[in-house]
# Entry
Amino acid sequence: SQQGEEDPQALSIQEGENATMNCSYKTSINNLQWYRQNSGRGLVHLILIRSNEREKHSGRLRVTLDTSKKSSSLLITASRAADTASYFCATDRALVVNSKLTFGKGITLSVRP
Amino acid sequence: NAGVTQTPKFQVLKTGQSMTLQCAQDMNHEYMSWYRQDPGMGLRLIHYSVGAGITDQGEVPNGYNVSRSTTEDFPLRLLSAAPSQTSVYFCASNRGTGGPQHFGDGTRLSIL
# Structure
């Protein structure tokens, strides 16, 4: 079963606009991670936010985590055509020995030039 | 550093054939995992390993075998290929439990 569910499934924006993607999960977590996948390539880790953190930044990326709502958002500011990719959230569940990351189904982001 | 290397990149098999997908990492990571990615299904964990000699099943292990004789290598074996195993297979490694995973570029497998 999917622990992380991303929303929306697809997003199309103009270059320069901001892109906001959301992820909801079901059980307590140690951390939540966001990955990017370009067409025909493997996933690339973008950012990890721990359960005791509320916000984290990396370049044009901003991630927030609300553990009370079991949700996270990924904001990409000033988007570029090169940001066109699929984005996945993944959760590391708490209280599980040798916990494995559970991935959502992904969001397809298209940035129009 | 090559990171995670998967071979082959593409493969076509006939139903019933067997084959091994290779995965190697040069980051001295303890943890390695195999996933399959199908349209609309996200990534599903097949098998994983927490160190040399230690493997365990993931969400969809049936029809696949793994072994981990060295820290670097984690091959995935298809015992008797079936059309339902047509997919893109990704290998990943990470340093510790719950840590960021490093992915290979995948093996695109078609079974006729």
About this structure: Residues 4 and 11 of chain A are 18 Å apart (CA to CA). The radius of gyration of chain A is 14 Å. The interface with chain B takes residues 2, 30-31, 33, 35, 40-45, 48, 88, 90, 92, 98-106 of chain A (CB under 8 Å). Chain A is about 0% helix and 60% strand.
